[in-house]
Amino acid sequence: MARQLKSAQRGITFIGLLFIGGILAVSGVILAQIVPTAIELQAIHKAAKKAAAEGGTVADVRAVFDRAAAIDDIKSISGKDLTVTKNGDKVVVSFAYEREIHLTGPAWLTLKYEGQTK
Fold it and tell me: Are 65 and 89 in contact, with CB atoms under 8 Å apart?
């Protein structure tokens, strides 16, 4: 009877627990570095929409974006990196940029972001 109880036990070994914990820790560190770039992307979208709504000329759009970028602490892109076009009577602001996150040694994670106003 004791033999049946022992064979019915299930679980994870200590080595397995360490392995899973290590994977979760590395994933958490990488995620903690990605989240600020995603928050910055949302701020860039907001600043681009504001610039498209308030700016009439290309110079105005870039100036409005730069002011909003200074307020929201946007470092990845500036007004000169924007592509400003007109679609009918609407101003369309588009952007594209890359962010690199150093992982370890020669390993880097490159995130490519792009977007445009509607």
Answer: no
The answer to whether the beta carbons of residues 30 and 103 sit under 8 Å apart is: yes
Q: Is the pTM of this model over 0.70?
A: yes
For the chain, the domains span 13-116
Which residues 6+ apart lie within 8 Å of 89 measured at CB?
none
The tens-digit pLDDT sequence of the chain (118 residues) is: 555 555 667 888 999 999 999 999 999 999 999 999 999 999 999 999 999 999 788 999 999 999 999 999 999 999 999 999 998 889 999 999 999 999 999 999 999 999 999 8
DSSP 77: -
Q: How far apart are CA 80 and CA 62, in angstroms?
A: 7
Amino acid identity at 63: A
Residues in the chain: 118
